[in-house]
Write a structure and sequence with these properties.
Number of strands: 0
Strand content: under 5%
Radius of gyration: 20 Å
Distance between the termini: 72 Å
Structural class: mainly alpha
Number of helices: 5
Shape: rod-shaped
Helix content: 55-70%
Order of helices and strands: HHHHH
Number of domains: 1
């Protein structure tokens, strides 16, 4: 149980803060925080043009790390309207 608590504290970011509680409290707190951050991560991902399901899963697994990543990674660039179309077509016809 201690190993699970340690992994969850790293994934949710509690290890950086020096949060030390009994393993049961740490597991419960990490799960609650991850469940609270997953919808927020999905909403930000949707507004930035990313896959909501992938970022929800990332938010459930990684908590604050996924939230930070979705805010730091720039949104995908929209396609340019003047981009050439492939395969090229003939305008002679």
């Amino acid at each position: 149980m201690t190993i699970i608590a340690s992994l969850l504290s790293i994934a949710s970011g509690f290890a950086l803060m020096g949060y030390s509680e009994p393993p049961a409290n740490l597991i419960a707190t990490s799960i609650i925080i991850d469940l609270a951050l997953a919808p927020l991560t999905a909403i930000i991902a949707a507004r930035r043009g990313r896959s909501t399901i992938r970022w929800t899963v990332a938010g459930l697994a990684l908590g604050a790390w996924a939230l930070a990543a979705v805010m730091i990674i720039p949104p995908p660039a929209p396609p340019r309207p003047d981009a050439p179309q492939y395969p090229p077509t003939s305008d002679a016809a």
